[in-house]
Design goal:
Helix 1 crosses helix 2 and helix 2 packs antiparallel against helix 3. Helix content is 56%, strand content 17%. The protein has one domain.
Length: 88
């Protein structure tokens, strides 16, 4: 998901900066992206089958790719956007 209205911070395991342990995404409060992300979280929490589908999508990426966060985000973009449309 390419979005210019988001800031991402990462915490690393040590000073090599190779292993990230946490990601923090900052977005503008109560704007479109904020509302989409809250909806996405709530939708997954309420729908076990969809949550499992999302997990499998993420596991598929990890098992078959090692290209990095940009490609990971691209891999799940269609799924995430499909959930966002349910908000409207």
């Amino acid at each position: 998901m390419k979005d210019l209205h988001k800031v991402v911070f990462a915490k690393f395991a040590d000073n090599t900066y190779e292993v990230k342990t946490h990601f923090v995404h900052l977005v503008e409060y109560d704007k479109e992206l904020w509302n989409n992300l809250i909806f996405f979280k709530n939708y997954l929490n309420l729908n076990e089958n969809v949550r499992r589908e999302y997990l499998n999508l993420k596991l598929d990426y990890v098992q078959n790719n090692s290209s990095g966060i940009g490609q990971y985000t691209d891999h799940k973009e269609e799924f995430v956007k499909r959930i966002y449309t349910k908000r409207r």
